[in-house]
Amino acid sequence: MMRSGIAEKGDNRRIHALLAEYGESHRNATNKLIHWIAVPAIFWTIVALLWAAPVPDAFAAVPYLNWATLALLLTVIYYFALSWPLAIGMVLFTLLCFALIEAYLAAPLFGLPLWQFAIGVFVIAWIFQFIGHKIEGKKPSFFKDVQFLLIGPAWLMSFIYRKLGLPV
User: More exposed terminus of the chain, fewer Cβ within 10 Å: N or C?
Assistant: First the structure.
């Protein structure tokens, strides 16, 4: 059943409706190109900032238990509720983010702590996102619905899936 253009939960086409609605404000080639760079960068910076955030002592007993892994567990559950295939791709991308964080921690750029580097990349990526939407002439989708912050990475993943002939 449809409500306000988005299929309701339980409808296996919900992910397709969300991706289509997100795509409505991402048709300009320059804006799309910016999104291919900025969306993964923003995703990584949020993971990195959560990774760098102080954790309770109780977390220390479990390897890799931090705010990033907890937040991404919830994020992956959201993706699985929308689409199993896309969720698997997002898990792989999440693991890549973890690997990049580990690589950064082993060899920080410009001598900056992870959180400082992540904030700089975050700000720059969002500036480019807004430039892309200015070029597009449409507001970012998340202004309408905050869940589109999670749909952006899935939208890009769906392009990769289509190119590979995989179902979304």
Answer: N
Amino acid of residue 73? L
Dihedral sign for Cα 66, 71, 77, 80, please.
negative
Phi, psi of 27 (to 5 degrees): -105, -25
- Give me the phi and psi of 33, to 5 degrees please: -60, -45
pLDDT tens per residue, range 2-47: 444 444 444 458 999 999 999 988 999 999 999 999 999 999 999 9
H/E stretch holding 141: none
| pLDDT tens, residue by residue, 63-86 | 899 999 999 999 999 999 999 999
Comparing CA positions, the residue from 87, 99, 69 lying closest to residue 157 is: 87
| Lookup result for tokens 């995989």 | 166
Residue 35: exposure state from Cβ atoms within 10 A (0-12, 13-18, ≥19): buried
8 A C-beta contact, residue 49 and residue 122: yes
Widest Cα–Cα separation across the chain: 53
